[in-house]
């Protein structure tokens, strides 16, 4: 399999035909909030609510019932109606999966996608990308590259940068500050 590294080349048949993605017509999918969901999974916003010792959500799954990630997702789909919660979760799942994550995040490679799993009353998400080397090896959440420019954003806000696994700075705004900046609070 050959990965496309030139950003001018189409990534899919839909790109080649100029059709866009399923989410192109969705006005509520704010790229800044989508980036916040990625930052939360990447560990840039502090402690994450991970599933622990759960038979369905084994490796790297973030609990979407936790208030912080739930606040981000509920900006796209209203999740407060108990009667239609299953339908709302499915809509959120489909909308998140339809996003062109590499384009939104500004990350050329590796090709990043989100997985959203719903199991009864539990639901979670994780970002994954194919890993290099071993067959079947995947990069998950914090092992994926940080969003380019997040160090510049931290300098503007006066935050103290921290480093990721590669030693590069990846400090970002906290969830509350980002939601205020996006006009949601």
How would the blueprint of this fold be written?
Elements (H helix, E strand, L loop, with lengths): L12 H5 L13 H12 L19 E2 L3 H7 L11 H13 L3 H5 L7 E7 L2 E9 L7 E3 L9 H8 L17 H7 L4
Antiparallel strand pairs: 1-3, 2-3, 3-4
Tell me the number of strands: 4
Q: Name the overall outline.
A: globular
> Helix coverage percent of residues?
25-40%
Tell me the number of helical segments per DSSP (H or I, 4 or more residues long): 7
> What does the main sheet amount to?
4 strands, antiparallel
Order of helices and strands: HHEHHHEEEHH
| Straight-line N-to-C gap | 44 Å
Helix/sheet category: alpha+beta
Radius of gyration: 17 Å
Strand content: 5-15%
Average residue-wise pLDDT: 76
Residue windows where pLDDT falls under 50 for at least 5 positions: 1-6, 154-173
What do you see in this structure?
This protein is α+β, with helices and mostly antiparallel strands. The protein is built from seven helices and four strands. It is globular. The longest helix has 13 residues, at about 85-95. Strands 1, 2, 3 and 4 form a four-stranded antiparallel sheet that branches. It has helices at about 15, 30-40, 65-75, 85-95, 100-105, 150-155, 175-180; strands at about 60-65, 115-120, 120-130, 140. The chain is about 30% helix and about 10% strand.
Entry keywords:
alpha+beta, disordered N terminus
Short summary:
By secondary structure, this protein is an alpha+beta fold. It has helices at residues 13-17, 31-42, 67-73, 85-97, 101-105, 150-157, 175-181, and strands at 62-63, 113-119, 122-130, 138-140.
């Amino acid at each position: 399999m050959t990965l496309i590294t030139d950003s001018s080349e189409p990534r899919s048949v839909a790109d080649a035909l100029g059709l866009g993605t399923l989410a192109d017509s969705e006005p509520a999918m704010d790229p800044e909030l989508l980036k916040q969901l990625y930052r939360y999974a990447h560990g840039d916003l502090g402690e994450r609510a991970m599933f622990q010792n759960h038979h369905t959500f084994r490796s790297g799954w973030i609990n979407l019932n936790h208030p912080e990630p739930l606040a981000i997702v509920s900006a796209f789909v209203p999740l407060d109606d108990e009667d239609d919660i299953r339908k709302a979760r499915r809509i959120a799942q489909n909308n998140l999966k339809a996003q062109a994550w590499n384009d939104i995040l500004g990350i050329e490679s590796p090709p990043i996608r989100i997985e959203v799993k719903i199991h009864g009353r539990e639901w979670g998400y994780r970002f994954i990308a194919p890993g290099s080397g071993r067959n079947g090896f995947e990069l998950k959440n914090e092992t994926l590259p940080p969003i380019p420019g997040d160090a510049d954003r931290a300098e503007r806000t006066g935050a103290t940068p921290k480093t990721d696994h590669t030693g590069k700075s990846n400090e970002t705004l906290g969830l509350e500050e980002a939601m205020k900046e996006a006009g949601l609070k």
